[in-house]
Specification:
The protein is mainly beta. It is built from three helices and 14 strands. Strands 1, 2, 3, 4, 5, 6, 7, 8, 9, 10, 11, 12, 13 and 14 form a 14-stranded mixed sheet that branches. The radius of gyration is 17 Å and the shape is globular.
Length: 241
């Protein structure tokens, strides 16, 4: 039987090793344990700050980013090999992994409305407003959702970690599915045009953790709807999805 830690990338494996080394699982991955792992207090980001942590090469609209850079609701973010960034825009928070490219879109310049994931891997949590997500093979509508997505030219992996989502295969509106989940219940692959009659298919749970979701929800002052044993979060749980 393949363990979950064997189905994840090197960066994720390193994170879990650190959790085990610090005893964070026994502590329920408290705010203190997460803060030690990521080097900063896991708390809501203050006004005027976008980036929680940044490693390696990260570009914002083609320019090199620093932890002091501001990310707006219509920016393009790219990460290089071995790089990642955790950031917040409004009520939305993101953990963007290496070799990824994300284009944000907004109608008012303040609130994210659209996300185009050109390539790569992204863990996100969102406020109450609706968002439209596109990849090479999928169109996804969400509201108040936690999600993990991996985008490749002919394949999208999508996990609706909690909340409501509308999935549609690109170029074929007849292939669609509505899913409402509470805890990674129904991951999906959305395949490209060469996949045959069924483009939306069941998928396993891979490459993201509840601890990461707790971290990025904390950055916008929220807590996920699930509970881990010994959880030390004192703020209210999410009820807005």
């Amino acid at each position: 039987m393949v363990r979950k830690t064997e189905r994840i990338d090197d960066a994720r494996r390193s994170f879990l090793v650190k959790l085990l080394a610090t005893g964070a699982f026994a502590l329920g991955a408290s705010r203190t344990a997460l803060a030690e792992l990521f080097g900063k207090v896991v708390d809501k980001l203050p006004p005027g700050k976008s980036i929680h942590t940044l490693t390696g090469s990260v570009l914002i609209n083609g320019n090199a980013a620093t932890t002091g850079s501001i990310i707006t609701a219509s920016d393009k973010i790219d990460t290089g090999a071995g790089s990642n960034v955790i950031f917040v825009v409004g009520q939305d928070a993101f953990l963007m992994r290496e070799s990824s490219s994300l284009q944000l879109g907004s109608e008012d310049g303040k609130v994210i409305k659209t996300l185009r994931i050109v390539t790569g891997k992204l863990l996100s949590v969102f406020g109450k407003s609706a968002h439209d997500i596109t990849t090479a093979t999928a169109v996804i509508g969400i509201r108040g959702t936690g999600m993990y997505i991996e985008s490749q030219p002919e394949l999208t992996y999508y996990c609706n970690c909690y909340g409501l989502a509308e999935l549609q295969a690109s170029g074929d509106p007849a292939q669609h599915e509505t899913i409402k989940t509470t805890h990674h219940d129904t991951p999906r692959y959305i395949l490209g045009a060469d996949a045959g009659a069924t483009r939306i298919r069941p998928a396993p749970f891979i490459n993201h953790t509840d601890e990461e979701l707790q971290l990025i929800e904390a950055l916008v002052g929220r807590v996920p709807p699930f509970v881990l044993p010994g959880d030390a979060y004192a703020t209210p749980r999410r009820t807005d999805y």
